[in-house]
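Trying the structure run again after the queue cleared.
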Amino acid sequence: MASLMVSMMAFVASVKDRFSSEKGATATEYALLVGLIALVLVAGVGIFGTALNTWFTNLGGTVGGWVTKTGTPAT
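Done. Tokens:
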């Protein structure tokens, strides 16, 4: 009878251990974090896309004005 009790206690302990284990929780948390970052990036590009395009186009024109067509710095 005692060995049955020990076996049952070991079984219950192993079941409790499996349910309380946090193995794999970190990967799930990182996956959720990556998904949230991707969602924020997509929303940001959707909202600010045209303004960012204009800003980078103007920046490219400004930087392009610093260099002549021959590749030497403008004086």
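The two ends are 97 Å apart (CA to CA). Worth checking whether this holds up in the mutant runs.
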